[in-house]
Design a protein that fits this description.
Chain lengths: 198, 198
């Protein structure tokens, strides 16, 4: 039906998270209508990004410099280390603007069935860094999922002998969240971590 | 926070229909993980598509040849003409595989308030083509929206003097629905229950 060039573009676009075959087609047509202002700039941006952006050799963040902007920033506390599963989690923390230490990106969580063990997540590299940088606190900022919690427990065990403080993010009611939509696990965690206000 | 290359990519991706800032960021990260199998091929596909694909000078379809594949196909009946608003509507009809005539893409529907009148939609070109190709039937395959129906009525009035049959898609099309989202069965029913209006 359509040109092979369009078919190929739609097929590649539909592999992006959040785009199915139909929305990929809509995206392709939207770009063909804005060839010079969207389609060609996007082609350039993809190539520039693919060439310039690489994982930071220290923390695993993605940036066009190595070490990345976070690792190079002398204002940031190298002795507080936040461990996240993925780069998007690091970015979520940075968007919040609440953390002034450094990061370690695991690149996933422990999943024995998928063959993802401590080696795949660079656990030895994490331990080495904790020793080398004389880290005082490791904050395990992993999701409150089965995989995330399994990984947190494992890392806590491995980090304990090093003598640094190890913490995990608090569980509770999300800000803006309504109780009626929360699951029992969250409510249970929220009740147990209740804080005295009077 | 992130590299300017990533920021620029995310900004462009978030201009695609169906992607907001968060999903654009997810898409960018997914591509950075598959640089050689997804990101660079997508950059190439965008450029190839932008260079090769252009509107057909006869019907307005997008293809890498001019006239387009539909207009060049000698198996297709040049004397039955299906008028659609957008290229995605033409593709929706082609996906259903139920129509063996030719198309005319208007590029929109009449919207006086937005300055879209008969000239913008190439109505004279449509009338000329109906005369030239001795078209026997014009099928108005416009959405069952206010704009679509206004445009259908207008076109029916303009086409009436030419002596060809003018029909519109049957009311299998849900009111308020757009062609590009319809399933093949609905499109098939709509084509078969088309009604003569002039």
């Amino acid at each position: 039906m359509a040109a092979v060039e369009i078919d190929r573009l739609v097929r590649l676009l539909s592999r992006l998270p959040g785009l199915g075959p139909r929305s990929a087609q809509r995206a392709a047509l939207a770009m063909l209508k804005r060839r010079d202002t969207l389609m060609l700039p996007l082609a350039d941006a993809l190539r520039a990004c693919a060439e310039a952006v690489h994982p930071c050799s220290r923390c695993g963040n993605l940036d066009s410099t190595d070490p990345c902007g976070v690792c190079r920033d002398p204002q940031r506390d190298a002795r507080t280390l936040c461990v996240v599963a993925e780069v998007e989690d690091l970015w979520a923390m940075e968007r919040a603007g609440i953390f002034k230490g450094r990061y370690q990106v695991l690149g996933g969580t422990l999943r024995a069935l998928d063959g993802i063990g401590p080696d795949e997540l660079g656990v030895d590299r994490l331990l080495g860094r904790v020793r080398e940088d004389e880290v005082r606190e490791v904050i395990l900022a992993l999701g409150a999922t089965v995989d995330g919690q399994t990984t947190s427990h494992y890392l806590a065990e491995r980090l304990r002998p090093l003598g640094c403080t190890v913490s995990r993010l608090g569980h509770g009611v999300p800000i803006g969240g309504e109780l009626t939509y929360l699951d029992e696990g969250t409510l249970d965690a929220a009740l147990r971590s209740r804080q005295r206000v009077a």
